[in-house]
Structure formats: structure tokens, C-alpha cells
Specification:
The protein is built from 31 helices and 36 strands. It is an alpha+beta fold. Strands 1, 8, 9, 10, 11, 14, 15, 16 and 17 form a 9-stranded mixed beta sheet that branches. The protein has a 5-stranded mixed beta sheet with strand order 19-32-33-25-29. The longest helix is centred in the N-terminal third of the chain and has 25 residues. Keywords: Membrane, Transmembrane, Transmembrane helix.
Length: about 850
Amino acid sequence: MENNLIQATVDYVHNLDWSDIFTNITSNKLLFLLSIAIPVIIPLFNIYKRIVRIRKIVILRVLNWMLVSQVDLARYKIRAIFDITLFVITIIIFFITDGQYRWYAMIPVGGIVITECCANYKHILQRIPFKRIKEFPYLKYEQAALIIPKGLVGILSTTLKEVKDIPANPRMMKIHFATTDESYETRQVITDKSIIERIIKNEIVAYYDSLTEKIREKGYDRSQFFYLENENGHKEFICDILKDIYSLENVYNAIIQVQSDITKDGSIRFIGDKVGIRGYKLEKGELLLDIYETDHFTFKVFKKIFKDRRFKRIFQEIICRTNKANDNIKLLLVESLAFLFSSFGIDIIIGGRDASGAKKMLVAARSGNIESDNRSTLHVPVNESFSRTDLVEHDQYYSPYHCVLRGIKEELGIPEEICKKTSVSFHDFAIVSDEGEIGLGCYVDFSFVMPLEEARLYPGQDKYLELADILIVPYPPFKWSPSAYEDYFYKTTGNEKFCMQWQSFTTLLYQRAILRNAEASIPIIWLVDSTIILTLLFLLTNYTQIDLTSTIISLILGGLALFIMKRFNNKPVHKLTYGEFLKPFVPQWNGDVRVLQSTMHSQIVKGSRKETNPIADGIMFGLNSPSGQKLKLSDIHLLTPPFCTVRREFVNFTEYPISFYYVAEKNGDIGNCLSFIKIPYALSSDDLSLLLTVKTEKGHIVSYNFTKPIHSDIILDFTNTLDEKQVNTFSKYYRMNKDLLKNVQIASLDENFQKRWFPLDLFNAGNDYFWSVIDMEDELEKHDSYDFDFKIGKKTQPRDLYMKVIAKNMDRSSFSIRLNGNLKDMETFLCAFTSRNDNRRKMSDLDIYMMQLFLIRIGIVYAKKK
């Protein structure tokens, strides 16, 4: 049967009159033009992509409506199916009945209208202007505000084309309940009632008086959007209620409570500057924020007032009203919450592709150490607050875009120059009512920058202090219920970390980011385009005099011409090529070696010796013995794990890690020790030199090491104590008991150490702790001797090193080899060398982890690749 069909096809093609066909094609201008135009034009319309885009817009609007109205999803689906069924019945009745009976088709339509009116009568009433509500006899004037439903999110805008930089205005509003000293560490909480009363009068009361006048000028002073029930259940104007909430008694009590929580709350380790939001301007998708200056302590005071049960209902009612207000009223409602919005956050979701090219995204497990309730949660990879650190262009503008780059650099360690190559998009300008926070959603696409496995390898300054893990998850399909992602991620990964609690609104952010970044399937695009082309072909052959055979051949020729044109004219799409596999040599979070603290890429100083080294100077020791004395580092042990945090400078807004070590004199070999391990290297332009130390025993290789302990004695002079201000400062930083700090003898690394060595990362391996350090002169030859020199080229293999150097010197107990080559060649060689199982077994996890974090700083991805 098949052979007969094939033979018939061959005979048909053989018997075609090709000269007549080509004559028909060339003589019929319409056919010739269509044969070229149809295969070219149809794909250019991107019809399916447009359908996908429309679908996204529709779903986003439905999601917004569901958020605003708090719709029960299951009931909503049942009603939708019921309405669609009735509508289909209407169409069937309309077409199968005679003209005089077609009016029966209106019965299902009437059923739909009546059903929806009964189910949504409250929502229909909401469409009526508030000024007319009191005209209805069955609605009391006082019940007008209650018609507005409660929602979890106050939606201000879901689609943003641009978030503009904000001009820095020296006259902008400022409010502080702490002193504004240039040093964050010396700032003190204001507890004098007379000063607090003056701040409330000059800033808060004056602001609400001005806002009242503004509302009156715009003619909204009688709108029920601006009337709320106070604590006594009486209607009162919004500004008057908020002035009562921010009374002297309430503010003072909040200040005292927050002050007492400073040493308990991991998020209040300093009183740093923040930027609050007092309004905004939104035109054609371009957002410009109206900001004011405040500080972290003041933000905590306003947050404490928000969480007061007496006031939280009022704040949430205002937030929920933004969902039903027009743009002008919505702006005024936001302005009324200016002091609640004394912090502005950007929640950054990072997506991209893994080494194999599969689309994936990152989820972060945030450590409970930084949360006020000490509970670890799942959240977005980067959550950053807008602050004075984001001043750019000689302090002329506050830049939200810079805030995103800074957040990724600090929390993930990825340098800004790399982040600038990513695609950054802002969306979902909204308020979370249960937290009382305003902010932006942001999606950063790393697809054409690096695989997501590589993004996990960088050492971040805040990374190991704030995060417990960074998880790579498959890019999920869109789901109507945000909470469905909690089970989906666990089901697809099997990782028990997804049993942790999610932060309240995080799955909502992921849901909307997933919807926005969904891509049209290539096979479906071709299927839709092909269907349209075949449909046009059918119409041409049935409604014109064009021959079917000529049309098919003409279309094939046109399609072939299009393929050739695209093949030679289109630029190739950039694609990351790491093979299909990229795996770290050691566990990044849950292995035998863990990172406790890291410095940022930009903090490394090369080629010069500074008088002060803030990183080394931030390493402080406290001896439990009351007598002052000098001790070697090797003669002390740690009584507790290190206390690690980040210190911030006011003048240039720089941040750097600091750590405190509570120690005692050694009694034998008992106790945890701290050591400094150097990484010998030399870097000149694109040329890198490393030192490989090989140890052997009885003709067998025992170990490979790229690092070396610092053998010179490190002397610590425990002759100093902390003064009262320093005790207060460091008790906040480290959340330590003040009495303990008063009674310890303090020592720091000596001046010679600070001038020469730059600390990189603090590790915990077994019972001991290790700092990796580099020589700031980075001259391997000057400070480290070696026995052999081996050049690494493009084709150099690990076996070449073994046969030419290592195998010939197995009689030595120890020898060093200087490896030198181009950065790319060194990367290829180091990864191949460590990937060999016989070599990997002879290398310690600590040595590999130190090298991984060092090499990634200079652009080498040290991992297993296939």
C-alpha cells in the first residue's frame, strides 16, 4: 500500500508540466507577489505572540480584580464555567431555531445577567459615585466606606515603562527620631519629650495641615474616601485621625519600645539613613517618586505604631481604598500614609537559564538571624531598601536602577559592571497591607550574562549574613493561585527547604513575574503561522482562478527564499556555552566547610599599601582575662563562634564587614582556633600565576594545595578596653551583653599585618575558623619561593603537568610549582585538574572553597564543567 502511494506521488511529480507551471507563476503577477509576500509577511505579524501578550494583559487585570475583591478562586471558576455554558447554549438556540423563536435565546442571557447581579450586587453598587450613595434610602451615609472590600495589596500601578531618577533636593522634608551625627555609630535616640513634641508639630502636624488644604482645593473634602471611623466608631476626616495617631504619647511610647528592641532585633544594628515616599507622579507608565529623608530607627518607630492593634485597621482601610479610587484620589491616599512609608523597598526576582539552557529562576532562603521573630523564610533573592547610598552623578539624583545593581552586588556578590549587562524591568508599584510597606517589584534577566549556577558562586558581603541558601528552580507554569507555587517548588525539586514558610506576599510576586516573562512556544508559533498560510492558500485556490499546483510550488519557492535571506542576513543569537553542566566542587551552603562572612569584589585593593585597611581593622578580639598582655594568635582559642556583621560609613556610604572574637588563653589543645590562610598569586592584565604545592609520601601523592598558612607570628596586644560609646556601639552591632564588653581586653591586628594582608572570606571548617587573605602587592615571586615553573597554554592538560613535573619529583616530600598562563587558559586547566577524581581526593574542601571565591573575583569560574 505504501509503495503504491509513493509510486503514485513520484509519477504525479514526473508528469507535471513544469514549463507551464513556471509560465503560470511568472505571468500571473498576483500569484508571484503573493508567493513571496505570504511566507514573509505572516511570520512578521507574530500573531501568536500577540495573542500571548493579550492573554497576559487579560490575566493581569483578572488577578488585580481578584486581589482587590478578595474573590474565592474556586467559586469564581464555577461561576465562569456556568456563564460560559449558558452563553454557548444561547448561541446554539439562536442558530438552530427559526426566526420567530429566536427570542428564546435571550432566556439564558437573562439568566447570566440576573445571576451575576445577585452575586455581585455589592460590586455594582461600588460603581456608583460616592456622592450619590446617600441618595439610596436603603444605604446609610456612614456605611459608604464599608462597601470597599479589603485586600492584601493596594495596587498603584501594574505596568511601568520606566522608573525615573529622582533629583536630590536639599530642601526636601526630613524627619528623624534619632540624632543625625555624621557617624552612624554615635547617633543617639531622641527621648526628650519636648524635642519629640517639636518634631511632631513642625513636621507631622504641619504636613497633614498642608495635605488637608490640598484635598480641599481639589474638591475632595466631602468624598467618603477621606472619612474613616476612629477608635470610638465616629466618622472623622482622614488627616485628623492620622494626627491623633501620631500624637506625642503614641510616638514617645513607640520610641521607647523600639529603643529597647535594638539589641534584640537583628535588623537594627545601626541607625542608617533611609528614603521615605510621600507621593509620586505617574504619566504614561513613567514613575517619578516624591521622597523625603529619614533613618532606620525612625522607620522602626512608625512601623511600631502601624502594628498597634488600635491603629492597624485604620491604616489597612486606607491602603485598601487605593484599589477603588481614581488616580487623583489614589495619590492623595498615598500621601496621607507618608510617614508609614518611611522605607521604600525593591523586591528583585532573578531569572535566566542554567548551563544547559533550560529556563530557571532563583529563590532565596533567608536566615532567621536578620528577622525580628528569628524565623527563616523563603523570599526573593534580593530585597533592597532605597537609601542615600543610591545617590548618583555627584549626588544629584537618587537612582532606583542603581539600588537594584547595589542590592545584587551586596547580597549575591555579582559586580555592578556585570549586572549592567542584564535586562532590568520594574513592575507592580504596590502596597502590602499586612506589612504596611510600599515598594516595587523588579525582574532581572541573566539569560545572556551568565548561567544561574554561576550566579550562586560569587561571595556577597551580605550574602552569608542574610541568606541560608540560594535555590535554582525550574521556571514554573502560570498558576492562578499564588499559594500553589509553595507545593509546586517542593514537588519539582524535592528540596526540604521548600517546607519553610514563605513571606506573605512573595509567591504573589513570583506569580506575576512568571506571567509577565512567559514566552511563546516556538513550535506553536510555527503551527499558527503555517495554519494561517494554508488557510490563505485554500482561499486563493477556491475563490480565484489560480491553479492549486502552481500556488503550492510558488509558496515553497517563496519560503525557500525567505529561509536563505534569514540565514545569511540575521545575526546569530548570543548563547552562553558551558556545555550542559556546571557544578561547584564543594557544597555552597550545607557542606563541611561554610562561609560566615565575605568582602565585596570592589573592596579588594591591589598593587598599593594603604595606611588603613578597614577590612583587617574590623577584625577585633576580646580577651576574657582582665590583665593586659600580649599573646600570639596561636596561643588563644575562641570561646564562642565569631560575631559577624556589616559596618557602614556615613561620609562615602561605604560598607565593609566587621567581626568580633571572644577568646581566652589556650589550655592544651582544647578549643576552637582562628587562622589566616594566604592565597599566593600574581595578576598582571590577563596573565595569572598561582602556586601549587605538592606533598608526597613514599612515592605517592598525599595532597595538592593552592593555599598556604601564614607562618609568621601574629601578635595581639590586649592592653585596651572599650569606652562607653564603643560599648554601646558594638553591643548593637553584635547583639552582645554590655557588661561582657566592658570587662574584656581588646586587641586588633597590628599595623604591619593590616598594611600587607587583605582578608577575603571567613570560613568555618570542623571546629576551627579560617580567614583567607591575599597580599595587597600580589607579587608571588617576591614573597613565595617555588621549585618549578610550568606554563599553561590552550591545549595544556592535567596529565602534561603530572608527566613533565610531578612524576619526575616523587622522591621529594614537598615541592611547589608556579602555574602561569592566560586567564582563560588557567580557568580551563584548573577546572580540568580539579575535576579528575584522583586529584580531587587529594584536595581539601577548604582549599577548594577558598580558591573558588578568590578566582570568581578575578573572572574565573572554578567549577566542574561538561
